[in-house]
């Protein structure tokens, strides 16, 4: 009888997702759902693994990969893969996959919800009632910013950026976008207008970051970028925290160079309650939940497992990076 290939999963997943693959592979899994696997244990477990299922919380660098003499695939449960040394993996003949498409609409839902929550000061309003401060109605009580017929500037017009643009179109918004390449379909179907980065900053009422984290985009939103935004502008980030200089963002908000910010991602995650941005009323912070619907997270997990199955069976992965 042939020995089953071995898979290591770096976070506890529901048995309903894992069970169909147990008959195909020997599966080992970190026992905690809420805590990342310790690095020393990860290095120990990958030594005998043929496939690795990981999350953004795991840094799969050259040290980890060099311990994994049997490893054929790293399946990352995310669209981004800046936690993986892809070049080192390629040199070692290890395939790297991600989970695009399946989380596009869910993440776009969250991005637009974050935009609306920030613009209309919903978190402040909820806290206002909970603190028993609501005594009277007044004309400008917790008055926020309109969303309809405003200008949205989307930086990064990939799958998620395009899905956000579709939602913006339903609100009658003017859509500007900046991307490495033009997006003819978005221009034709959504009337999106291509613009350079500075134009996006200067003309948009809402600037939304949906760009991957690379050497070129690291801290792309810096002091100069925030100075170019409208004083009434609102900044939304659902991409990666590393594309923002958080100190510059904090200063821009305190100095009222921009009106507000809605953030689902941060430079170093998780953030703690003493983080400077959490001290500001005009900032909405979420714990990196862009794709966090039950349906989408389960589909992401299945895609990772399908990629592993394909590669370990000598087939092409469904979503190689």
Description:
The structure is a single chain. This protein has 321 residues and is of the alpha/beta class. It has 2 domains: 115 residues, 3-Layer(aba) Sandwich (Rossmann fold); 182 residues, NAD(P)-binding Rossmann-like Domain (Rossmann fold), CATH 3.40.50. The protein is 35% helix and 15% strand. The chain is built from 12 helices and 12 strands. Strands 8-7-6-9-10-11-12 form a 7-stranded parallel sheet, with helices on both faces. Strands 2-1-3-4-5 form a 5-stranded parallel sheet. Helix 10 links the parallel strand 9 and strand 10.
Helix content: 25-40%
Number of domains: 2
Q: Report the major sheet.
A: 7 strands, parallel
| Known CATH architecture of the largest domain | 3-Layer(aba) Sandwich
Structural class: alpha/beta
Query: How much of the polypeptide forms β-strand, as a percent range?
Result: 5-15%
Query: CATH-wise, what's the superfamily of the largest domain?
Result: NAD(P)-binding Rossmann-like Domain
In order across it, which strands form the biggest sheet?
Answer: 8-7-6-9-10-11-12
Task: Classify the oligomer.
Answer: single chain
- What is the number of E strands? 12
Return the CATH class of the largest domain: Alpha Beta
Radius of gyration from the CA trace? 22 Å
C-alpha geometry: globular
Average pLDDT number: 96
Which parts are unreliable, with pLDDT below 50 for 5 consecutive residues or more? none
Can you write the helix and strand succession as a string? EHEHEHEHEHHEHEHEHEHEHEEH
Distance from N terminus to C terminus (CA atoms, Å) equals 34 Å
CATH topology tier name of the largest domain: Rossmann fold
């Amino acid at each position: 009888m042939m020995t089953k290939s071995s898979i290591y999963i770096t976070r506890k997943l529901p048995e309903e997702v894992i069970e169909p693959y147990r008959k195909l592979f020997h599966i080992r899994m970190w026992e905690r759902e809420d805590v990342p696997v310790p690095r020393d244990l990860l290095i120990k477990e990958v030594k005998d693994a043929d496939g690795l299922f990981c999350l953004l919380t795991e840094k799969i660098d050259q040290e980890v990969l060099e311990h994994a003499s049997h490893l054929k695939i790293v399946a990352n449960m995310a669209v981004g893969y800046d936690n993986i040394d892809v070049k080192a993996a390629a040199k070692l003949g290890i395939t790297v996959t991600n989970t695009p498409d399946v989380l596009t609409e869910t993440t776009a839902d969250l991005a637009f919800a974050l935009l609306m929550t920030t613009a209309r000061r919903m978190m402040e309003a909820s806290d206002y009632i909970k603190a028993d401060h609501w005594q009277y109605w007044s004309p400008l009580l917790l008055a926020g910013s309109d969303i309809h017929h405003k200008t949205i500037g989307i930086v990064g017009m990939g799958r998620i950026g395009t899905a956000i643009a579709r939602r913006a179109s339903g609100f009658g918004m003017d859509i500007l976008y900046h991307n490495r390449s033009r997006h003819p379909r978005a221009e034709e179907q959504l009337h999106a207008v291509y613009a350079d980065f500075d134009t996006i900053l200067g003309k948009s009422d809402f600037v939304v970051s949906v760009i991957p984290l690379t050497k070129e985009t690291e801290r792309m939103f810096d002091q100069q970028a925030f100075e170019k935004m409208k004083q009434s502008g609102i900044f939304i980030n659902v991409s990666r925290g590393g594309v923002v200089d958080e100190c510059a963002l904090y200063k821009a908000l305190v100095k009222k160079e921009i009106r507000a910010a809605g953030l689902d991602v941060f430079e170093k995650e998780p953030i703690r309650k003493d983080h400077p941005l959490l001290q500001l009323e005009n900032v909405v912070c979420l714990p990196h939940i862009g794709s966090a619907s039950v349906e989408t997270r389960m589909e992401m997990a299945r895609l990772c497992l399908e990629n592993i199955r394909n590669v370990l069976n000598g087939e092409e992965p469904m979503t190689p990076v």
